[in-house]
Amino acid sequence: MQPEIHIDPQRLNQRLVELAQFGALPEGGISRLALTDADKSGRDLFVSWLRDLSLDVRIDQVGNILAFQPGRGDAQPVLLGSHLDTVRAAGPLDGALGVLAGLEVLQTLQELDIHTLRPVALVAFTNEEGARFTTDMMGSRAFCGELPVEDAWDVTDFEGVRVGDELRRIGYSGDFPCGQVTPAAYLELHIEQGPVLYQERVTIGAVEAITGISWQAVTITGAANHAGTTPLDARRDAGLAAAKVIQYLRELAQFLPDQRATCGRLSFSPDVINVIPGQAVLTVDLRNGEDAVLKKAEQQLAEYLAALAEGENVEVTSRILMRVSPSRCDPSVVTWVETAARGLGLTCRRMVSGAGHDAQIMAHTCPTAMIFIPSQNGISHSPAEYSRPKDIEAGANVLLHTVLGLADGGTG
Ligand code: HGY
Ligand code: MN
Ligand code: MN
Q1: Which of 32, 336, 377, 407 has CB 3.0 to 4.6 Å from 116, enough for a Cys bridge?
Q2: Average pLDDT for residues 228-256, to the nearest whole number?
Q3: Residue 4's pLDDT is what?
Q4: What is the pLDDT of residues 254-294, one digit of tens each?
Q5: Sign of the CA dihedral 177, 104, 120, 72?
Q6: Is 261 helix (H, G, I), strand (E, B) or coil?
Q7: Ligand 1 in contact with 405 (CB < 6 A)?
């Protein structure tokens, strides 16, 4: 391990600050939803930095931004990446850290005139979050050939706007074919977005596995009626039924092992103070590291919804928006992460990710691992998201040294 080979932390933090201006909200936080003007601005800034490094930049058919740095040989590249899109009222690091730390690694290799055996590539995946277009990890799924490009283009947001039209509108409807690149390995630096590293005061997380996720939209149809005159036994109250579903999600999470269940979106119609809601639409986010338990949660929710329809005299339908099984990272790449961290004198522990990531899709196609750094108080998907500059620097240096190991013969 050569600790004298290190990234430039000031430059990395300066870029994180510059990127965070796009989508910045007056009340704090960032909204850079996929394929919005704010996302375009962030993309354009990132591409300008890539071009400043004279990298070979390609935009693929779903707007993934790819950059290639040649190696001494022309074998499959080691790919670094993450995403630039955010949820609504997000923090500055989710996704952006992995993309800009990857850029910092490429620039450091150039400045130190280090030419690895394998090429090193960098990707910013389109629509990892699924916050606007609810097929999340869209870019990585198309990149791996799991999501046909035409299907990605046809995904619409809640206002019916199509991905394909938005890609063209913001100038990121590229022609580089998806599914062309099979990396020798994929590495993603990311904030943990949970409390483990922060509470244990450990600097680096070597991620061994990533949670499974199941998203659905539940529509409850009852009968709009007068809030004052309608007797209780005559009500078909979609609002009450939705509240019962949300309460049930908490019970589901409490009695299944390591289960998470969340309702993030809820809307009533006609959404008027003195009208019993005739319809309610809510989203459900179920997560578990064990696919069998995730399936059990889905099954038990389906049974609950059927019984609720009967009991509340409402109709209940559910539409699966997305499902991804838990993924395991590649043990040898995880070991490279640990070796790099320990070689730099950093504390490190293996762990599972409760957040979803493009890496769990990439793990289907090549040896993959993630590097986590602590999130202060375990907070993310919030303007309060924060990681210390020294942890950001440590994570980027672990990324750099893991790449040096992998790209110079560490990948089979
Ligand atoms: O939802 C997630 O876990 C990720 O932040 N997209
Ligand atoms: Mn993320
Ligand atoms: Mn996220």
Answers
A1: 407
A2: 98
A3: 77
A4: 999 999 999 999 999 999 999 999 999 999 999 999 999 99
A5: positive
A6: strand
A7: no
Q: Encoding tokens for residue 145?
A: 């050939």
- Cβ of 356 below 6 Å from ligand 1: yes
Distance 96 CA to ligand 1 centre (A): 13
Contacts of 242 (CB under 8 A, 6+ apart): 218, 220, 266, 268, 277, 280, 282
Rounded distance, CA 152 to CA 62, Å? 7
DSSP line for 139-197 = HHHHHTTSS-HHHHHH-B-TT--BHHHHHHHTT----BPTT----SEEEEEEE--SSHH
Q: What is the DSSP letter of 87?
A: -
Average pLDDT over residues 22-36: 97
129 in ligand 1 pocket by Cβ < 6 Å? yes
Give the DSSP per-residue string, 269-334.
ES--TTEE-SEEEEEEEEEESSHHHHHHHHHHHHHHHHHHHHHHT-EEEEEEEEEE--EE--HHHH
187 within 8 A of 403, measured Cβ to Cβ: yes
Is 90 exceeded by the pLDDT of residue 2? no
Going from the C-alpha of 297 to that of each of 249, 300, 381, the distances in angstroms are 9, 5, 24
Q: Which ligand is nearest to the CA of 83?
A: 2
Give tens-digit pLDDT for 19-28.
Answer: 999 999 999 9
Nearest atom in ligand 1 to 94's CA: 5
Q: What's the gap in Å between 356 CA and the centre of ligand 1? A: 4
CA distance 410 to 412: 6
Q: How far is the CA of 47 from the centre of ligand 3 (A)?
A: 22
| CA 284–ligand 1 middle distance (angstroms) | 13
**Residue-level pLDDT at 45:** 98
Hey, whose CA ends up nearest to atom 4 of ligand 1?
Answer: 356
